[in-house]
Structures are given as structure tokens and as C-alpha cells.
Design a protein that fits this description.
- By secondary structure, the protein is an alpha/beta fold.
- Helix content is 40%, strand content 23%.
- β6 and β7 form a beta hairpin.
- It is elongated.
């Protein structure tokens, strides 16, 4: 092999190595962003509103003067319900939304973002991924599980054992990985759920929800 051919082979190998490293780097960035977004949204939907304590009506319609102890008991009941650890279930894979359905929602999407490239990518993205719940940040130490056929066959669809069921569509990112668009399904019970379009932007290394639109309620 002469010197010229050797240089050509070396350059070719160097080029292959460069693009291979670049592709791996992009995959790592995308995976990191996926779990940043899913973690952020899991934390959002796992935290119900802390409603003010309420009191039951007096027995037999009689007048009753509520004491400080009554107030503290009711308050602690509300707080404990709010801070207790929860069981959060996830669909094992992201889901694909039909192209026709997404096209029907273009006007809603455009109310959230005017980034044409991001919308175009969102409309054509069909790549499902398996979710690794071990990579979802869990600062509250909740129980994170996969929702499976066992739950489907249970009375009440398994909601006697879980507090929240979350499902994520394929997450669309722009080329700089600082904008994201997806649909999230949230269920707090068999007949208590909704789907939502969410647009996020990443600023100072943190994702922020910039727009959210309800798509359906069950």
C-alpha cells in the first residue's frame, strides 16, 4: 500500500470515527433530555392541589362549635394525604399518535409554539422508545411501576393499587434540544383522566412548561 492510499484509508477511518462519536453524543443528549422531561412532568402530575381542610356537617343538623383540635386534625389529615408516598404507574413505552389526529390538532399546537420546524418534526415522528423508570427522578421516593396486563384485568383497571397512571407520546425535540413537544395521558382513576399537549423550553439547564392544552377528558 503506497503512502497516498494509506492517507486515504486513515482519513476514511477518521471520518467514520468522527460521525460515529457525533451520533453517540446526540443519542446521549436525547436520552438525557427525555428523562429530564418525563421526570419534570411526573413531578408535576404527582402533586395534587393541597385543598384547604374541610369539616363534615354537624350530626343530626345540630349546631356545633369547631375547636382548635378539630382544625388541627382536619389539617393534618389533608397534609398527610398530600405528602404520603404514591404509587405511580407508567406505560412501558411511549406511544405513537396517528398522523391524522396530530394534523387535526395543528391549530392547538400553533397556539403553543410558532416553531415550524418543531411542529413539522412532531407531525412525522413515529419512533417509540421503552421507558426506563429507574432513570426517572424520584425525589419523593414514590413507588414507580409499569402498568401491564395484570392491571388491565383487575377490577377497576388496577386503580385500587395505583394513584396515577402516566403515558407519554414520542417526545419531539428541536435540533438544539432546548424545545420539546409531546402529548401526556394522565389518569387518577378509571373514569378520571385527560390527555394534554405540552410545550416546554429549556433555560439554564432546567425544563419549563411554556404551554399546555387539554385535548380530551374522560
Amino acid at each position: 500500500m503506497n503512502v497516498i492510499n494509506t492517507k486515504k484509508v486513515f482519513f476514511l477511518l477518521l471520518t467514520i470515527l468522527f460521525f460515529s462519536c457525533k451520533e453517540k453524543q446526540q443519542i446521549n443528549i436525547e436520552e438525557e433530555c427525555i428523562y429530564q422531561v418525563t421526570s419534570h412532568l411526573t413531578n408535576k402530575f404527582r402533586a395534587p392541589l393541597l385543598l384547604p381542610p374541610t369539616f363534615p356537617p354537624p350530626p343530626n343538623g345540630k349546631e356545633y362549635i369547631y375547636t382548635t383540635r378539630d382544625s388541627l386534625t382536619s389539617y393534618m389529615h389533608s397534609v398527610n394525604k398530600f405528602i404520603r408516598k404514591k404509587t405511580i404507574a407508567f406505560l412501558p413505552e411511549t406511544f405513537t399518535t396517528e398522523k391524522e389526529y396530530k394534523k387535526e390538532k395543528v391549530k392547538i399546537i400553533e397556539e403553543c409554539t410558532n416553531d415550524k420546524d418543531l411542529i413539522r418534526l412532531f407531525l412525522k415522528l413515529e419512533k417509540n422508545i421503552e421507558l426506563d423508570i429507574n432513570k426517572i427522578a424520584n425525589s419523593k421516593k414514590d413507588s414507580l411501576i409499569y402498568y401491564n396486563e395484570k392491571h388491565e384485568k383487575m377490577l377497576g383497571k388496577g386503580f385500587q393499587d395505583i394513584d396515577i397512571l402516566l403515558s407519554f407520546s414520542n417526545i419531539t425535540f428541536n435540533k438544539n434540544y432546548n424545545k420539546a413537544l409531546l402529548i401526556v395521558g394522565v389518569s387518577y382513576g378509571r373514569l378520571n383522566g385527560f390527555s394534554m399537549l405540552i410545550y416546554l423550553e429549556k433555560k439554564h439547564y432546567h425544563w419549563e412548561i411554556k404551554c399546555e392544552k387539554i385535548l380530551s377528558i374522560s
